[in-house]
Specification:
By secondary structure, the chain is mainly beta. Strands 2, 4, 5, 6, 9, 10 and 11 form a 7-stranded mixed β-sheet that branches. A 4-stranded antiparallel β-sheet has the order 1-3-8-7, with no helix packed on it. It is globular.
């Protein structure tokens, strides 16, 4: 089984920055499409950012230009650098791994709270 563990969440002031990390284990990491999703109170999980195995990325409309997703295939790590954070970014952030044959895995989530 693929295991995903997120870290780096916390409380930050508006305009501040956080860096989330996701550690993947239990499979062939280099072929996975990795993603970050978030879920605020009462909402569905929405795409934040996604990165395929060759480094190609895409982003949700509300975070593009502020957030950057990256991966280190030698370490099995995925990162989300979040800058210029807004109160609307407050949510639980989940790491996702999509395997080539369609199987999808999720981490347990990490809380990000943006507040003065």
């Amino acid at each position: 089984q693929v295991q995903l563990v997120e870290s780096g969440g916390g409380l930050v002031q508006p305009g501040g920055s956080l860096r989330l990390s996701c550690a993947a284990s239990g499979g062939i990491f280099t072929v996975y499409t990795m993603g970050w999703y978030r879920q605020g109170p009462g909402n569905e999980r929405d795409l934040v950012a996604r990165i395929i195995s060759d480094g190609t990325t895409n982003y949700g409309d509300f975070v593009k230009g502020r957030f950057t997703i990256s991966r280190d295939n030698t370490k099995g790590m995925v990162y989300l650098q979040m800058n210029s954070l807004k109160p609307e970014d407050t949510a639980i952030y989940y790491c996702s791994a999509a395997l080539p044959y369609g199987k999808n895995y999720w981490g347990q989530g990490t809380q990000v709270t943006v507040s003065s």
